[in-house]
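1st attempt posting a full record on here, be nice pls
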Amino acid sequence: MTQPDARILVADDQPDVRRALRLLLAGEGFEVEEAASPAAALAALEGGEFDAALIDLNYARDTTSGREGLDLLASLRNLDALLPVVVMTAWGSVQGAVEAMRRGARDYVEKPWDNARLLAMLRTQVELGRALRATERLSQENRLLRSAELPDLIAESRAMRPVLTLIERVGPADANVLVTGEHGTGKEVVARRLHAVSARAGKPLIPVNAGGLSEGVFESEMFGHVKGAFTDARTDRVGYFELADGGTLFLDEIGNLAPKQQARLLRVLQTGEMQRVGSSRTRRVDVRVVSATNTDIRAAVTRGEFREDLLYRLNTVVIDLPPLRDRPEDVPLLADFFLRRTAARYGRGLAGFSPDARRALLDYRWPGNVRELEHAVERAVLMTRGELVGAADLGLQPAAAGGESQLDQLTLEEAEAILIRKALQRYQGNVSRAAEALGLSRSALYRRLQAHGLAT
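the predicted structure (as C-alpha cells):
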C-alpha cells in the first residue's frame, strides 16, 4: 500500500514515457508531477517538496552520454539533499548507473522497466526518505533545544571573537581544553559552553575545584574509595572521574595542584584507567577534561612547580579569556543580562539603568571581572528604590575605578579585597603563595575569594 500523499517527480523528455509512468503510479495512489526537461524538474522541486524523484539520464541535448541526467541529479541534491532519486536509462549502461549511484542516486531502473520492480523500488525509497526527513527534523529540534539551553556567554566585543571561534571549533571535539584568564572572567561558563556543544552534552558535566582539594582527600574525591579504605570510609564512594564518565570533567584552579596530585592525575589522563582508594580493581573511564587556571602555568613549569607532561595532556587547546576591562563593549550587555535575571529572581520590576549608572559601569575597571559585575548588579537590585538603577546603587568606588585607593575611604571588606587581589597579582595567581604572604591558610583564602566574588 502506497504511503498517503506520496509525491513523485517524474523527469523525462519523452511524453509517452511520462504518460505511461503517470498512469502506472497514479493507479497505485502516488501523486505525480511531470517535468519534460532538467530545468522544469528543478523548477518543480523549488516549488514544493517531493517524496522521491524518478529521472531519466538522457535528454534531447545529449541522448547517449547521460551527462544531463547526472547534472540534474547533482542539482536536485543541492536543492534537497534528502530527496531519494531513482535514475532511468534506456541504454542499459551499467557504467552510467554506477556513476549516478556514486553521485547520490538511491537506485536505478532500465527502460523498458518492470512495473512490479519499479513500484516496489519507489515505495521503499519513499519510506526511507520519510524516515530520513523525520530523523533530520528531530535532530534540528534537538539542536534548537540544545542551543536554547546553552550556558549564557554574553560576548560581542572584538576581544572575545577568538574565544567564540575556538569554542565553535573545538567544542564538538573530544580534545582536552585549558582555559586561562584572571579570576572572575568566566572560565566555568566557557567550560559549560564547551560541554553543551559537544557530543557529550547528554552526559554529566562535573565541576571540581581541584586546587582547593587538600592532599589528604584528593584521591578519595577524584577517584573514589571503597568501604574500609581508611578510618572514615564507612561506605563505598564514587569519585569525580566516575561521575563524569562519558561526559566532561571541569578541573578549576588546576595550577594549584601539589606535585603528588599532579602525578596521580597524569596517570589517569595517560591511561584512562583508575582505582578507587583501597581497591585493586582497575576501572576505565571515558572523560573529556576541561581545566582552568588564573596562574601563568608556563612560568610554573619553568620554576619546576608544574609538570610539563601533565600540561601537555591538559592544553591540547588553550582558550585565553580577556579581562573585562579589555572588552568594554560587553559591559552594558552583561549588566543588562544580570539585571533581568536578578530582578526576576527577587521579584523586582526594574526598567533598567539610569544614564549615570551606565557611565559608572563603563568608567569602572572591574578588577574582579564578570563575577564582580554580577555581584554589583545584584547589590543594586536589592538597594534601588525606583524603577531605574542609579550609580549609587551599584556601590562602585571611584578610587578603585582609577586603580588607586585611600584606606580611609574604604570599608574593611573593600580593603581586604584589594589586598587579596594585589597578592594574587604578585604571585601570578598562585593561591598557595598568596595565602602564605597574607598569613592565611589556603582554604581560608579560598573562602575569602568566594566572599569577595574573586573566585573563577
